[in-house]
C-alpha cells in the first residue's frame, strides 16, 4: 500500500486542530481505517513517506504507529515495514 493510498483512506478530517494531539488523532484515524478496510498482512508505507503525504511530523507518525503496535493492531520491525495484524 502506498502512502498516498493510505492518506486517501484516512482523509483530511483526522486532525483536530490541536498540534499537541497530532499523534493521537492520527492513531485514532489509522485504527479506524485498518479495522474497517485493511486485511491482515497488509504492509503499510514507510513512516517518512506517510509523514510527507499527510503533511505532518515524522515523529508524530512514529508515535501513532508505536501506539498501534502497543494495542496489537500492527507489528513493526526495526528497519522493516509495518504490517497489519
Structural description of this entry:
There is one protein chain. This protein has 85 residues and is mainly alpha-helical. The chain has 4 helices and 3 strands. It has a 3-stranded antiparallel beta sheet. Strand 2 and strand 3 form a beta hairpin. Helix 1 (3-10) crosses helix 3 (47-54) and helix 2 (22-37) packs across helix 4. The longest helix has 16 residues, at 22-37. The relative contact order is 0.21. The model has no long low-confidence stretch (mean pLDDT 92).
Structural class: mainly alpha
- The rounded distance between the terminal residues' Cα atoms is 15 Å
Overall pLDDT confidence: 92
Tell me about the biggest sheet?
A: 3 strands, antiparallel
Number of beta-strand segments: 3
Q: Percent of residues in beta strands?
A: 5-15%
Shape: globular
- What's the gyration radius in Å? 11 Å
**Biggest sheet: strands side by side, in what order?**
1-3-2
Q: Which runs of at least 5 residues are low in confidence (pLDDT < 50)?
A: none
Task: Summarize the helices and strands and which ones pair or pack.
Blueprint: H1 3-10, H2 22-37, E1 43-44, H3 47-54, H4 58-70, E2 74-75, E3 82-84
Antiparallel strand pairs: 1-3, 2-3
Helix pairs in contact: 1-3, 2-4, 3-4
Features of the shown structure:
globular, 3 strands, 85 residues, mainly alpha, 4 helices
Q: Can you give me a brief rundown of this structure?
A:
By secondary structure, the protein is mainly alpha-helical.
Amino acid at each position: 500500500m502506498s502512502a498516498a493510498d493510505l492518506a486517501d483512506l484516512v482523509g483530511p478530517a483526522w486532525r483536530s486542530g490541536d498540534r499537541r494531539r497530532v499523534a493521537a488523532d492520527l492513531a485514532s484515524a489509522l485504527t479506524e481505517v485498518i479495522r474497517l478496510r485493511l486485511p491482515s498482512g497488509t504492509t503499510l508505507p514507510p513512516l517518512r513517506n506517510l509523514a510527507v503525504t499527510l503533511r505532518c511530523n515524522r515523529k508524530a507518525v512514529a508515535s501513532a504507529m508505536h501506539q498501534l503496535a502497543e494495542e496489537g493492531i500492527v507489528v513493526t520491525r526495526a528497519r522493516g515495514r509495518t504490517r497489519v495484524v
